[in-house]
Write a structure and sequence with these properties.
Elements: E1 15-23, E2 32-39, E3 45-52, H1 70-85, E4 90-95, H2 102-108, E5 113-116, H3 118-129, H4 160-176, H5 181-193, E6 201-202, E7 205-206, E8 213-214, E9 230-231, H6 241-255, H7 258-261, E10 262-263, E11 267-268, H8 272-277, H9 293-316, H10 322-328
Parallel strand pairs: 1-4, 4-5
Antiparallel strand pairs: 1-2, 2-3, 6-7, 8-9, 10-11
């Protein structure tokens, strides 16, 4: 970073970073939390801060009395202060949509631009489809008059299949537009207004997802249809005016964040660089799964080791380390 020109994106004076916090166990009950800041362009570790709770003990000044979640904001504050001390300037910051470190970031780097992780935006997109829409009456006056007539399982037209497809389509748009913010806006808006309603050609445009005519025999190549073909049909159609409008509102909420989702030089960004480095288990696991038995045994043992170290800290002093004791024997 220091070898690049100061004006070059990714240099020490024009840094592009991403950061996140990780906890040893899930939820707000973990006694160990680590915040890391990484170079987004290379994935290299820049700074890190670890918090460890020691119960009610006052044997160290680094006793962390807050909750696990508050450790993210405090860790970010410490990391950003350290970056300022080293005369680093963060110009672009890639972070999760639910990150709590934005306040610490903008208080230290006033001109920093926040770019949101497109993966998190895609996962949150389905939540907008199920949210209440009363607060949008002013911007969408048709809400009081539209009615739901689909009477289907799940949430009307918002079936599990539709929500899954909507997320896939969103990800396809993000990847296809590159660094073009306006293309992202136009395609996402067209997805909600036309494609979702099985309308694939309109005045001034057509769907970019697919050809208007697709294979009917199952033997043709995607871009070389030799059979008679058939008109393309949307798999999960929004035929209900109520849910069609609700989907448009959900997409408009994402469009309002377009400048934070698509960067004019970086395109869409992800925080997977940071999150992948926080994997402390033997294998990756999703956050909604409990720890497997082997992992439970490991972390139970780690808790016992930490208790022993706390006891040795009190009776042997801060200079004691188990490695030195082991090698002496």
């Amino acid at each position: 970073m220091k070898q690049k020109n100061d004006s070059e994106l990714g240099s020490f004076e024009n840094a592009v970073t991403c950061g996140d916090a990780a906890w040893l166990t899930r939820g707000y009950h973990s006694q160990n939390a680590t915040y890391t800041l990484r170079n987004y362009r290379t994935g290299g570790l820049l700074y890190s801060k670890h918090f460890s709770q020691r119960g009610n003990s006052d044997i160290t000044e680094e006793l962390f009395e807050g909750t696990s979640k508050s450790a993210e904001g405090l860790g970010a504050e410490w990391v950003f202060k350290k970056a300022i001390t080293d005369k680093m300037n963060i110009s672009i910051r890639v972070q999760d949509n639910d990150s709590t470190s934005s306040k610490a970031l903008l208080s230290n780097f006033l001109n920093c631009r926040v770019v949101l992780c497109s993966g998190h935006i895609a996962r949150n997109h389905k939540k907008h489809l199920k949210s209440q829409i009363k607060k949008y009456k002013k911007t969408h006056p048709d809400i009081p008059t539209v009615k739901c007539h689909c009477m289907k399982d799940d949430i009307g037209c918002f079936t599990n299949g539709f929500i899954k497809t909507a997320r896939i389509n969103f990800s396809a748009i993000v990847k296809s537009v590159g660094c073009d913010q306006q293309a992202f806006i136009d395609r996402l808006r067209a997805l909600a207004k036309y494609h979702a309603k099985n309308m694939h050609e309109w005045d001034g445009g057509k769907c970019f997802f697919h050809n208007l005519t697709v294979c009917n025999c199952g033997k043709c190549k995607k871009n070389d249809i030799t059979c008679r073909g058939k008109p393309y049909k949307t798999k999960n159609i929004l035929s209900c005016p109520f849910h069609s409008l609700a989907y448009e509102i959900a997409c408009e909420a994402v469009i309002a964040q377009s400048k934070q989702i698509i960067h004019e030089e970086l395109g869409c960004c992800h925080t997977s660089i940071t999150e992948s480095s926080h994997n402390v288990l033997l294998q990756f696991r999703t956050k909604n799964l409990n720890l497997q038995m082997l992992h439970y045994y490991v972390f139970t043992s780690l808790g016992l080791i930490q208790s022993n170290m706390s006891w040795m800290y009190v009776h042997k002093g801060p200079a004691y380390h188990w490695l030195l004791d082991l090698f002496e024997k």
